């Protein structure tokens, strides 16, 4: 005996599967939104070597600097070349 669509929809696990799909879609949407925010916020950082970047690095604790940041700070903020 074949089940009709209405009978198949009344199976106890059908609602759980639908909820699981909604949860997965919400997780993907949230992850996408967070990634978009991270990209937009990273675009707001001042350019490395600019006066604003040097001031930001001065305000940042020296222990929180990466090796690349320390090298760039020395190059652009301490040992500025004459053409800059």
Descriptive report:
The chain folds into two domains: 1-44; 46-84, no CATH class. It is built from four helices and no strands. It has helices at residues 5-9, 12-42, 51-59, 67-78. The model has no long low-confidence stretch (mean pLDDT 80). With 84 residues, the chain is mostly helical. The longest helix is centred in the N-terminal third of the chain and has 31 residues, at 12-42.
What's the tally of helices? 4
* Succession of helices and strands: HHHH
Judged by helices, strands and strand pairing, the structural class is mainly alpha
Uncertain regions: pLDDT < 50 for 5+ in a row? none
- Distance N to C terminus: 84 Å
Q: What's the oligomerization state?
A: single chain
Described by strand count, sense and barrel closure, the largest sheet is:
none
Overall shape = rod-shaped
Bin the helical content: 55-70%
- Proportion of residues in β-strands: under 5%
Task: Report the average pLDDT across residues.
Answer: 80
Kindly state the number of beta strands.
Answer: 0
Alpha carbon gyration radius: 27 Å
Into how many domains do the coordinates divide? 2
Topology (SSEs and partners):
Blueprint (H helix, E strand, L loop, with lengths): L4 H5 L2 H31 L8 H9 L7 H12 L6
Question: Which key phrases capture this entry?
Answer:
about 80 residues; 4 helices; about 70% helix
Brief write-up:
With 84 residues, this protein is an all-alpha fold. The chain is built from 4 helices and no strands.
């Amino acid at each position: 005996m074949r089940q009709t669509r209405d009978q198949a929809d009344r199976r106890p696990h059908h609602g759980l599967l639908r909820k699981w799909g909604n949860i997965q879609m919400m997780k993907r949407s949230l992850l996408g939104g967070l990634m978009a925010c991270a990209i937009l916020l990273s675009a707001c950082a001042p350019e490395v070597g600019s006066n604003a970047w040097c001031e930001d690095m001065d305000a940042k604790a020296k222990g929180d600097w990466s090796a690349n940041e320390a090298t760039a700070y020395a190059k652009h903020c301490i040992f500025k070349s004459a053409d800059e």
